[in-house]
């Protein structure tokens, strides 16, 4: 049975997974890079900033789980581009000609457009669909492998609320953002449905894994 997974999903102590005021020059708004400093310091994450090297400890061990056995990603319009990207017919995402997905990637948007085939195996498909329907489409495209829910927080919250997430890796970053987009609203008692493990890393972040209990 394939699974629906979330990886490397970073949130602040006060539960925000992105900042306020997202813009072309500030993809995560006033949060800047603070939610992902732990990630870009790792061997897995260093290439995101065009760096080489990186740490090979606990943070990297978790970060590396992002890729294996993933056959498709689902993301929200807010991850794919800054507010208003739908008005730019040439926008193909933040990641340049060869995005780091290398699978079909389904972008949930109320303003869908034709699919875009990128270099390196990523094809963006645009869907105006409920979470369960989007998951069905992603599963069909995933070649028998798992589907990753790539964020942002609005989409993660919606998939959790719909009971569609089997595995979730969260990274609690010891910062207080104060504003932005929250993950947990409306998800009261979510923990009852998951086996949860927690690992503190020397970098200061805390990794939490949620694995869905058998029904
Ligand atoms: N902390 C992390 O690890 C992490 C991970 C990934 C991304 N991010 C950050 O999170 C931010 C984006 O998150 P967000 O919560 O603002 O937005 P998001 O979750 O990426 O996308 C939400 C938007 O997607 C569209 N959408 C969602 N569900 C839909 C559905 N069922 N049908 C049709 N359209 C649907 C809607 O946009 P429209 O109505 O405009 O179409 C909605 O406003 C970015 O700053 C990104 O960098 C953080």
TrEMBL record:
Keyword DNA-binding: yes
Keyword line: DNA-binding
SUPFAM superfamilies named among the record's database cross-references: Dihydrofolate reductase-like
A molecular function (GO) term: DNA binding
GO BP: riboflavin biosynthetic process
Gene3D superfamilies xrefs: Dihydrofolate Reductase, subunit A
Record-annotated Bacterial bifunctional deaminase-reductase C-terminal domain positions: 6-191
Record carries keyword Isomerase: no
Protein name, per record: DNA-binding protein
Organism encoding this protein: Kocuria turfanensis
């Amino acid at each position: 049975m394939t699974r629906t997974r979330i990886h490397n999903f970073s949130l602040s102590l006060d539960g925000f997974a992105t900042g306020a005021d997202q813009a072309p020059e500030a993809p995560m708004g006033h949060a800047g890079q603070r939610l992902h400093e732990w990630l870009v310091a790792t061997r897995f994450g260093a290439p995101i900033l065009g760096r080489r090297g990186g740490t090979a400890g606990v943070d990297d061990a978790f970060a590396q789980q992002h890729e294996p056995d993933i056959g498709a990603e689902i993301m929200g319009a807010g991850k794919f581009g800054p507010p208003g990207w739908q008005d730019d017919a040439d926008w193909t995402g933040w990641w340049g000609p060869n995005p780091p997905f290398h699978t079909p990637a389904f972008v949930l948007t109320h303003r869908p457009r034709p699919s875009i085939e990128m270099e390196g195996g990523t094809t963006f498909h645009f869907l105006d669909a409920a979470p369960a329907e989007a998951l069905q489409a992603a599963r069909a495209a995933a070649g028998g492998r798992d589907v990753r829910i790539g964020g942002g927080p609005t989409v993660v919250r919606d998939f959790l609320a719909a009971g569609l997430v089997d595995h979730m890796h969260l990274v609690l970053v010891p910062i207080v953002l104060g504003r932005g987009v929250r993950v947990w609203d409306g998800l009261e008692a979510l923990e009852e449905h998951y086996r949860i493990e927690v690992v503190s890393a020397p970098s200061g972040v805390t990794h939490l894994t949620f694995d869905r209990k058998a029904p």
